[in-house]
Structure formats: structure tokens, C-alpha cells
Amino acid sequence: MLGSKGLTVVDVYQGWCGPCKPVVSLFQKMRIEVGLDFLHFALAEADCLDVLEKYRGRCEPTFLFYAGGELVAVVRGANAPLLQKTILDQLEAEKKIKDKALSDEDECFPHIKDDGEDENMVSSEKTCTLAIIKPDAVAHGKTDEIIMKIQEAGFDILTNEERTMTEAEMRLFYQHKAGEEAFEKLVHYMCSGPSHLLILTSTEGTEDAVTAWQTLMGPCDPNVARMEQPER
């Protein structure tokens, strides 16, 4: 977990008093504000891990901040304003490091553009589309099977990621269904657990990725799909 991208905050607590509940609520609120991918929170009982021996026997919690697997800050005590400031400061510091790395990369590998032709070459040849393997399929271990079928259907997977979608992301993604009766239920379902996201492009010599993906998916209505394309 310490190797996760973004910032990880570990609440080191004593077994006799348990985690600090107000701070847990603070972190949950901040995760929503800054993004679930950028801030992670973990609990660790000092008596259960040898590496935390020096934090045992304290009457106040200790919060350890990790970025890139390295300890970057320590806050002692349930000081909510200080914890919030430390989180924001560390996230900003990490962002500056990433921005500098991208800037250095651009300097080492400058892009040569000639009247914009090279820049548009890839986009004119291939289109991409987003595919989402929904929470129930992920929970039932169907991800690998579905990915195999996608590849067999002639798609290249440019990138993929598994994570729980936010409500804001799902409302934007399904905004074309906003007026439908089941919209709220759909948004809640899509945020109920991890989904698997894939960026797809169709292989050379086939139709554009969006059309090809719609054809593979078949009818949007499950009842119609079961009748017309039961094999899918």
C-alpha cells in the first residue's frame, strides 16, 4: 500500500484506545475532495508490527505520511488543522516533483512538429474508446475472461486500470441517461466497488474503435440483448 501513487497516511494507534474516529472522518472527507487516487489512508496498531515499536506506549496517535514508498512527514497528536495542512502541503510537493519530471522529459525528448502533420498522424489513423468492466463482473473474477474476449474481437488495449469510480465521474459519464428513472440507481451501482477501465483501439484494417465496440456490445437493453444475441 505504501507504494501506491499519491500520498498514504498511516494512523499508528495503540490497541487500548483504538483509531481516532474524528480523524478517520476527516481523511474520508479529504479523499473525496482531493481525489481517491491521490490520497490513501491506513490504520496500523503499534503493538502488532515490529517496525512500529518506537511508537508504542504513547497516549496520542502518530500519523506517518508516505509518498513513493518513502516517509516524508510525521504528525503527532490528533491535530486536525495540522493534519489537513500537512496533507495539502505534501500533495502539492508531489505535484511539483511530477511536473518537474515531465518538464525534464520534454527537454530530453523534444517533439518535432512540422505544420502539425506529425501531431495529428496517429489520431487520423486510429480512434480510441473507453471500456468499463463493471463492479459485479470484477467482483466475480470475470476480468481476465472479458479482456481475452476483447482482444480476440480485434481490439488493442492501450492502457488499463482497476479502481472504484467516483460519483462525480459516473454522473458525467452517464449524463446522457440523467433523465431516466434508473439514473441514480445506475450511478450508485457503478460506485459500489472496483471497476476495470480500458482504453481500446481497433486493430489495423478494421472500422473505428467506437463503432467496433458498439457492434461488439450489441443492444443497450439487456432484455433485447438476451433475445437477439444470447451468446454475448
Brief description of this entry?
By secondary structure, the chain is α+β, with helices and mostly antiparallel strands.
The ordered string of helix (H) and strand (E) elements is: EHEEEHHEHHEHHEHH
State the helical fraction: 40-55%
* Count of DSSP H/I helices: 9
> In what range is the share of β-strand residues?
15-25%
* DSSP E strands, number: 7
Shape: elongated
Distance between the termini: 37 Å
Main sheet record: 4 strands, mixed
Helix vs. strand class: alpha+beta
Q: Quick check: average pLDDT?
A: 77
Rg over alpha carbons? 23 Å
Pfam families: NDK, Thioredoxin
Protein name: Thioredoxin domain-containing protein 6 isoform X2
Family: Belongs to the NDK family.
Domain Nucleoside diphosphate kinase-like: 126-231
Please give a structural write-up.
The structure is a single chain. This protein is α+β, with helices and mostly antiparallel strands and about 230 residues long. It has helices spanning about 20-35, 80-110, 115-125, 135-140, 145-150, 165-175, 185-190, 210-215, 220-230, and strands at about 5-15, 40-45, 60-65, 70-75, 130-135, 155-165, 195-200. The strands form 2 sheets. A 4-stranded mixed β-sheet has the order 2-1-3-4, with helices on one face. A 3-stranded antiparallel β-sheet has the order 5-7-6. The model is unreliable at about 110-125 (pLDDT under 50). Belongs to the NDK family. It comes from Galeopterus variegatus (Malayan flying lemur). This is Thioredoxin domain-containing protein 6 isoform X2. InterPro entries: NDK-like_dom, NDK-like_dom_sf, Thioredoxin-like_sf, Thioredoxin_CS, Thioredoxin_domain, TXND_domain-containing.
